[in-house]
Automatic annotation (TrEMBL):
Family of the protein in this entry: Belongs to the chloride channel (TC 2.A.49) family.
Source taxon at top rank: Eukaryota
InterPro entries with a match to the protein in the record: CBS_dom, CBS_dom_sf, Cl-channel_core, Cl_channel-4, ClC
Domain named CBS: residues: 506-572, 603-661
CDD domains tied to this protein: CBS_pair_voltage-gated_CLC_euk_bac, ClC_3_like
Keyword Nucleotide-binding among UniProt keywords: yes
Keywords: Antiport, ATP-binding, CBS domain, Chloride, Endosome, Ion transport, Membrane, Nucleotide-binding, Repeat, Transmembrane, Transmembrane helix, Transport
Upper classification of the organism: Eukaryota, Metazoa, Chordata, Craniata, Vertebrata
Record-given protein name: Chloride channel protein
Subcellular location: Endosome membrane; Membrane
TM stretches of this protein: 59-84, 105-125, 161-185, 238-262, 274-291, 347-367, 374-393, 421-446
Main location class: membrane
GO CC terms of this entry: early endosome; endosome membrane; Golgi apparatus; plasma membrane; synaptic vesicle
Keyword Endoplasmic reticulum on entry: no
Organism: Chrysochloris asiatica
Length: 666
């Protein structure tokens, strides 16, 4: 569908440009992209392939197809599954931390996100498919865990399945199974015990195996950007690698700040009311600016693939237009450094323009109401910067091989500098600057490219970019979006060092109305229904009686509503003044009183409790490690109050001198 914007294959319209020309006998080595079966829109419609009118017609068709794909995608998201927008990773992190977003991992979200992801990536917008594929994989995980009662009844078990699903998602998106497991561990998961580690490993393995057996790229590889470099790297090259790391950190900071400011603007102004119009306008601007430049016209994955490539003898890319020495008699794969030809200079300024365009447009694209990933655009920004630095270093080494830094390792006629390696390091640096990943990033990069001996340059760039970006702000893009949306998320990386106690945080405080509780055997069905109507709490503590306030358990709001509804429909004699009881044996009732309603089975008899003198440091730790949503506060068995996750977040904000109301879920 990406190639459909430029032309169509006459033998089979579902073939891409490359596949269309594979079978053709008329292709030559010089014009490998031209074959009679593939026709541009101008050739098909007005039978012209060159000239101004043909160019303008192709330009218009490109824009029209892009607009059509984007409009279809945003309409489907808006009508059928509003949750299918964005990357999905911030929400998955929040869900794995113990918060429930109903419908976020539902069947409709899965279906619509899968379809619209194809559309938005083909429309040429500056976004990737990797983040959304993690969301899609988690939807599958959620769907399968709902089929087995062992997982559907147990929230903790279900979260383990979702951790493994996230690993499988990255494994498929990048063809990087080990990177996927580490990504789930480092970025997504909240609580990651050893058994989840090896289950995630198994899930990622099966995912990668399935992908390999389908062979989607037709090259027997799991990945799109497979590269083989033939030269080692040298110590002197660490300096440009670290510079690329600094660039990645700065770009990450710039991107996060600008993107969050734009998303906040979208939330607080009228802009947010017109999601379809916004997508159409951004797509139109992207298509109009992207078409004239060959590096922005092609799909971002192809661009990265071209930037990673080493210039062999068989390359037809502009980036490989060097001036050849006619007397050269060397093996094909070890071509010495050569002076740049006119094609390389053209490619350099086109790449510079493409780099500026990508940096700006990605800020406005990420966060629109369509599925949008961030991995591929960040890697493209880094790869363009890296390739330009690489070509610069290569030409410097060629023209000044007598300088002291080049003298030891770069003799004339040797192949010293690989510009493709710089592109790879730059891509890793920019991705690290935006997401703040380190370990999983390096592993994903070398699994992606097969470049095992380049782990040290990748590590140097990833660590530098993280340090530089952290100097300007600790949050990665996903944490920033979690805060922007006000999800109740306790970051594992934050320290809590204050000396407050549970009694300082719990509700009700002095002067507030008392806690809404249920008693074990003295409330009628009507009392409970009134309580449910008047409050919007997620659940209610159950006590022996109003006087003693001794805690028995905790009843979830949802289960109470369902139990009362079912009892009224199925059990005879249940009326508004039936007594509800949570004890094992029903109380002695007078002969003419209505049937009692027994609700012991929906009662959680072991709710999590702390005493009023528990330090908040411990309470925060408990909330983090167990993914709790609320915790009851008692003193010698008597219920005093309740602490919810939102109370903990408010308290942490207050301790950090922020406005506690500014961080809440909206």
């Amino acid at each position: 569908m990406t190639d459909l914007k430029e032309g169509v294959c006459l033998s089979a319209f579902w073939y891409s440009h490359e596949q269309c020309c594979w079978t053709s006998n008329e292709t030559t080595f010089e014009d490998r992209d031209k074959c009679p079966l593939w026709q541009k829109w101008s050739e098909l419609l007005v039978n012209q392939s060159e000239g101004a009118s043909a160019y303008i017609l192709n330009y218009l068709m490109y824009i029209l197809w892009a607009l059509l794909f984007a409009f279809l995608a945003v309409s489907l998201v808006r009508v059928f599954a509003p949750y299918a927008c964005g990357s999905g990773i911030p929400e998955i992190k929040t869900i794995l931390s113990g918060f429930i977003i109903r419908g976020y991992l539902g069947k409709w979200t899965l279906l619509i996100k899968t379809v619209t992801l194809v559309l938005v990536v083909s429309s040429g917008l500056s976004l990737g498919k990797e983040g959304p594929l993690v969301h899609v994989a988690c939807c599958c995980g959620n769907f399968f865990s709902s089929l087995f009662s062992k997982y559907s009844k147990n929230e903790g078990k279900r979260r383990e399945v979702l951790s493994a699903a996230a690993a499988a998602g990255v494994s498929v998106a990048f063809g990087a199974p080990i990177g996927g497991v580490l990504f789930s561990l480092e970025e997504v998961s909240y609580y990651f015990p050893l058994k989840t580690l090896w289950r995630s490993f198994f899930a990622a393995l099966v995912a990668a195996f399935t992908l390999r057996s389908i062979n989607p790229f037709g090259n027997s590889r799991l990945v799109l950007f497979y590269v083989e470099y033939h030269t080692p790297w040298y110590m002197a090259e660490l300096f440009p690698f670290i510079l690329l790391g600094v660039f990645g950190g700065l770009w990450g900071t710039l991107f996060i700040r600008c993107n969050i400011a734009w998303c906040r603007r979208r939330k607080t102004t009228k802009l947010g009311k017109y999601p379809v119009l916004e997508v159409i306008v951004v797509t139109a601007i992207t298509a109009i600016i992207a078409y004239p430049n060959p590096y922005t016209r092609q799909s971002t994955s192809e661009l990265i693939s071209e930037l990673f490539n080493d210039c062999g003898a068989l390359e037809s890319s502009q980036l490989c237009d060097y001036i050849n020495d006619p007397n050269m008699t060397r093996p094909v794969d070890d071509i010495p450094d050569r002076p740049a030809g006119i094609g390389v200079y053209t490619a350099m300024w086109q790449l510079a323009l493409a780099l500026v365009f990508k940096i700006v447009i990605t800020i406005f694209t990420f966060g629109m109401k369509i599925p949008s990933g961030l991995f591929i655009p960040s890697m493209a920004v880094g790869a363009m910067a890296g390739r330009m630095v690489g070509i610069g270093v290569e030409q410097l080494a060629y023209h000044h091989h007598d300088w002291i830094i080049f003298r030891n390792w770069c003799r004339p006629g040797a192949d010293c500098v690989t510009p493709g390696l710089y592109a790879m390091v730059g891509a890793a640096a920019c991705l690290g600057g935006v997401t703040r990943m380190t370990v999983s990033l390096v592993v994903i990069m070398f699994e992606l490219t097969g470049g095992l001996e380049y782990i040290v340059p990748l590590m140097a760039a990833a660590v530098t970019s993280k340090w530089v970006a952290d100097a300007f702000g600790k949050e990665g893009i996903y944490e920033a979006h979690i805060h922007l949306n006000g999800y109740p998320f306790l970051d594992v990386k934050d320290e809590f060092t204050h000396r407050t106690l549970a009694t300082d945080v719990m509700r009700p405080r002095r002067g507030e109305p008392p806690l809404s509780v249920l008693t074990q055997d003295s409330m009628t069905v009507e009392d409970v229904e009134t309580l449910i109507k008047e409050t919007d709490y997620n659940g209610f503590p159950v006590v022996v009686s109003r006087d003693s306030e001794r805690l028995i358990g905790f009843a979830q709001r949802r289960e109470l509503i369902l139990a009362i509804k079912n009892a009224r429909q199925r059990q005879e004699g249940i009326v508004s003044n039936s007594i509800m009881y949570f004890t094992e044996e029903p109380p002695e009732l007078p002969a003419n009183s209505p049937h009692p309603l027994k609700l012991r089975r929906i009662l959680n008899l072991s709710p999590f409790t702390v005493t009023d003198h528990t330090p908040m440091e411990t309470v925060v730790d408990i909330f983090r490690k167990l993914g709790l949503r609320q915790c009851l506060v008692t003193r010698s068995g008597r219920l005093l109050g309740i602490i919810t996750k939102k109370d903990v977040l408010r308290h942490m904000a207050q301790m950090a001198n922020q406005d506690p109301e500014s961080i809440m879920f909206n």
